[in-house]
Specification:
The chain has helices at 39-53, 88-99, 112-123, 149-152, 387-396, and strands at residues 2-9, 15-22, 29-32, 62-66, 84-85, 100-103, 106-109, 127-131, 137-141, 158-161, 164-165, 182-183, 186-188, 191-194, 201-206, 211-215, 222-225, 228-230, 237-239, 252-257, 260-265, 276-281, 294-296, 301-305, 310-313, 316-317, 352-358, 363-368, 399-404, 413-414, 441-444. With 446 residues, the protein is mainly beta. β17 (222-225) and β18 (228-230) form a beta hairpin. It is globular and about 60 Å long.
């Protein structure tokens, strides 16, 4: 494993700093899931307060973020109009949406039990309200999936953040969505660990050693639930965002989020999650004994990942968005994660992570350091890169095929738990780096 740094001058005393890591074999790479940290909830709340709701305060009213601990909630206490719910976070989300409203910018309750639950979670610091300027309310559940790479994998020689995940308010478009759901295809040694979504480009390393970038859709895979293999347009229909927001009425819906069946709705008309999808079938299903879902159809893939737009394909720089992304300032376009992706391909600079292969099909990572949100030192620290600039850097450092992984405040490369560059998330007072909790990363064996 080889790690080097490169500095690019971009005028006016500003620079771009890049860490480049080269490996020998894609067999070295594995997906990892950091241990959950309750402290991640407070950091997500601060992120909403300071950089989402406050920045776009004219778009938001009150944004209620909430999470749950280990305590048990009786799901029988939360009847659902969408059938049988399995996740208490979903049940409470629906309960809040149906029983809490805003009047004259004050939070009001239709049900005293709901008020008591709201106040209990708030007292336990499991509920936080971010304040925008509109007279409305939105609920954003935060799942128990977020942890810190530096704390969970500090002994690994290399650890990198990986996939996009549901985080922004617009990502939580149904009662089944919550902050922290990984989005997009993940394949390791032929096993699909997360399904493809949104028809985006994916970096695919085949077992014969070849590396390609291809668009992969949900319709290309089969889904196994309780021993039954489902295939779109054969014995069922798949419904996903942004194509559908609700399923048709009259048939059985199996809602799949985070590789589990989280709801069985025998009547149809189910909201389609942004962080998952729905299988609708003619078959009457009253229960699912094993709610864990497996996926099939990409057994020839050694390693695969579907996140952001490509940066370079077969040695040719990518000059525009090739994968579909939500446009925040065009709300008439159906929303799907990640909602806050950069708006301008050529101008918007941010921290970036590139993942791909060189001309010999050997794996490469590159971390383009971004400007700190507080305490940034121009000329000493990097300014980030636009997607166009990142493509130029990919070409310059010898990448043949590469895609963008989750960038922004999540971007980092760790070696034995230490960083060579600086995180862009900083404390507003001390300017200390603030690592962002994420649900999934990539580690490399020596």
């Amino acid at each position: 494993m080889e790690s080097t740094e490169k500095i690019y001058s971009i005028g006016e005393g500003k620079i771009q700093r890049v860490q480049i890591v080269k490996l020998e074999d894609f067999n070295q790479l594995h997906f990892v899931f950091p241990a959950y940290q309750f402290s991640s909830f407070a950091k997500i709340c601060a992120l909403y307060r300071d950089f989402i709701v406050r920045k776009y305060e004219m778009f938001f009213g009150k944004v209620v973020l909430f999470t749950l601990g280990e305590e048990e909630f009786s799901l029988e206490s939360f009847p659902s109009k969408y059938g049988e719910l399995q996740d208490p976070l979903n049940a409470i989300n629906l309960l809040f949406k149906d029983n809490i409203f805003v009047k004259d910018k004050e939070i009001c309750f239709k049900n005293e039990k709901v008020r008591a639950l709201f106040e209990k979670l708030k007292e336990e610091k499991k509920l936080f309200v971010a304040e925008g300027k509109r007279n409305g309310i939105r609920f954003v559940p935060v799942g128990r999936k977020l942890g810190y790479l530096s704390q969970s994998f500090f002994e690994q020689d290399l650890c990198v953040n990986a996939s996009f995940f549901t985080m922004d308010p617009l990502d939580c478009g149904s009662i089944f969505d919550y902050v922290g759901i990984p989005i997009g295809l993940m394949v390791e040694k032929g096993k699909i660990m997360n399904p493809p979504q949104y028809d985006r480009e994916a970096l695919l390393v085949k077992k014969d050693g070849s590396v390609t970038i291809e668009k992969v859709s949900l319709q290309q895979i089969q889904v196994k639930i309780d021993g039954v293999l489902y295939e779109d347009h054969r014995n069922c229909f798949y419904y996903e965002r942004p194509k559908r927001k609700k399923t048709p009425l009259g048939k059985t819906d199996l809602v799949i989020v985070n590789n589990k069946v989280v709801c069985i709705n025998p009547k149809g008309g189910t909201p389609v999650p942004c962080g998952g999808f729905v299988i609708q079938t003619e078959e009457k299903i009253s229960e699912v004994k094993d709610r864990k879902v497996s996926y099939h159809g990409l057994e020839d893939i050694l390693f695969g990942l579907q996140v952001g737009n490509s940066a370079i394909v077969n040695g040719i720089k990518t000059e525009k968005f090739l994968s579909p992304f939500y446009k925040f300032y065009k709300p008439w376009i159906p929303s799907y994660p990640p909602s806050m992706y950069p708006l301008n391909y050529e101008k918007d600079r941010a921290p970036r992570i590139l993942f791909g292969a060189d001309h010999n099909n050997k794996p490469m990572f590159a971390w383009i350091e971004g400007a700190g949100k507080f305490g940034h030192e121009a000329g000493k620290e990097g300014e980030g890169a636009s997607l166009k600039e990142a493509a130029e850097i990919a070409e310059d450092i010898g990448m043949m095929n590469a895609i963008h992984l989750d960038g922004g405040g999540s971007a980092q490369i760790l070696r034995k738990g230490k960083r060579s560059l600086k995180l862009s998330d900083r404390d507003a007072v001390s300017y200390a780096e603030a690592e962002r909790a994420i649900p999934v990363g990539i580690v490399a064996d020596q």
